[in-house]
Amino acid sequence: MKLREKQKAEVKSSLIQAGEELFRTKGFAETTVEEITGKAGVARGTFYNYFQTKEDLALELLYETEEITTEQIEDFFTTIPGTVQQIQAIITKSVEWTLKRPELFLVAMIEKMKHGRTPEHPEGPLPRKMMTEAFRRGQVAGSVTKERQPQKFAHDLDGLQMMHFLRWYHYGQQTDLLSELLSSVNTYLSGALIKEIEK
Questions:
Q1: What span, in angstroms and rounded, lies between the C-alpha atoms of 194 and 139?
Q2: For residue 93, which of 63, 66, 84, 114 sits 20 to 30 Å off, Cα-Cα?
Q3: By three-state DSSP, how is residue 124 classified?
């Protein structure tokens, strides 16, 4: 990576980190662009070199991969056997992320629905990429039907997650989000996708 590109990536990362911290501590609506840039240590105008609005910054948080490496991805699939268990682990991590920042997740998800698929993130956020890979590997192993593409299976589960997250948020976060979501996911996997559920 060239020095200029590295500097730009560092500035963007600083804005994202500052935004996430302020959204979490102050709330999304109460946080201003000036506060984000002040915390990141850059001029206010710099913000608009990377994001049009603070909603766009919130959306970017969904796509943050935490710099996960190829080795880490391979380690995940090596240490967790079976498509069902892999999908459950991915969803559990996604729910943990959401429970820590429900308001931020809601804003980001609304922006995600408005934007749809973007050139910057054609495969979606990290959880969906990981689910796609889990289904692909399941098809290679012969435990997942090949009637549909792995990406389409992952899209289905992404939609299922969104529905549960929205319902959970709408009803005051009173239910056990993870248990209800995993129950729906397991029904989907056993009834629609998996030829033979791994033990």
A1: 9
A2: 114
A3: coil
